[in-house]
């Protein structure tokens, strides 16, 4: 029986130019799960206030991180697929689909049309409607017309899965020496998204653990990921913190904001800061440019000495093994693959 694994990430423009970024943002921000407003108001904001201005600014940011191979997000994601496919062999078919942009989910689902069992793995550790929910919804829409439906396994989130925690911890650990503090910077979401998901407090205070909050609370899942990473790394509560980045527009997003936390850390005497971004499994615009460049500049302007961006799990060998564990695939003999040690 042919088994398929569909890896889904958010997406990236085709090129770091204004036209390509505009096409990407048009598709991305038109999603009702991303901007959760009535359709008329959503399109008014998109076409009147965002698309005329933001694509040019974002294109400059993409140009700063673009490589000879292309978008870092796409490069890391494709490398991950190649290494997983090599490890699993002919019994499995591993395909990448981007929720927005290319390679599209439409093409990815077509490639998996002969699979009798399909595992859908959105590559977002914590569940958010705007990312995970949208990816799952769109995939199921594309599968719906099939005469013969595959059996499905859907991985909703893996924010506390030991395979992810251990892989991310292994990457973070070498960076701890020589730094005063570790900041976990997660992608933010509008507070309204939490309210829509049933978190009525809208997280005015820190969520100590997702065990005590609705399982759909993205912010609580982020705190749980941070706690588990800190425990694995042997950090005390004084040695790490949590913040949220990438807010868009003037509506309230979940706090604390990363750019507001940096001056607070300087005031506390932190000089050498390390930042990990465990809501991303592949380095991308939000990690490389927003943290690695802009936050770096802010940190130095505040009087900080060094700010080190810790890489995401990307196509790290331990993460490749971790995906098998998350998907419930039996362990593969490591001697059969050059990618897993």
Can I get a quick summary?
By secondary structure, the chain is an alpha/beta fold. It is built from twelve helices and eight strands. The strands form two sheets. It has a four-stranded parallel β-sheet. A four-stranded parallel β-sheet has the order 6-5-7-8, sandwiched between helices.
Q: How do the strands of the widest beta sheet line up side by side?
A: 2-1-3-4
Please count the beta strands (DSSP E, at least 2 residues each). Answer: 8
Count of folded domains: 2
Characterize the quaternary organization of these chains: single chain
Proportion of strand residues: 15-25%
The helix content, as a percent range, equals 40-55%
Q: Name the overall outline.
A: globular
CATH architecture tag of the largest domain: 3-Layer(aba) Sandwich
Order of helices and strands: EHHHHEHEHEHEHHEHEHEH
What do we call the CATH topology of the largest domain?
Rossmann fold
Radius of gyration equals 20 Å
Q: Which stretches of 5+ consecutive residues score pLDDT under 50?
A: none
Organism: Legionella spiritensis
Pathway: Porphyrin-containing compound metabolism; protoheme biosynthesis; protoheme from protoporphyrin-IX: step 1/1
GO molecular function: ferrochelatase activity; metal ion binding
Catalytic activity: Fe-coproporphyrin III + 2 H(+) = coproporphyrin III + Fe(2+); heme b + 2 H(+) = protoporphyrin IX + Fe(2+)
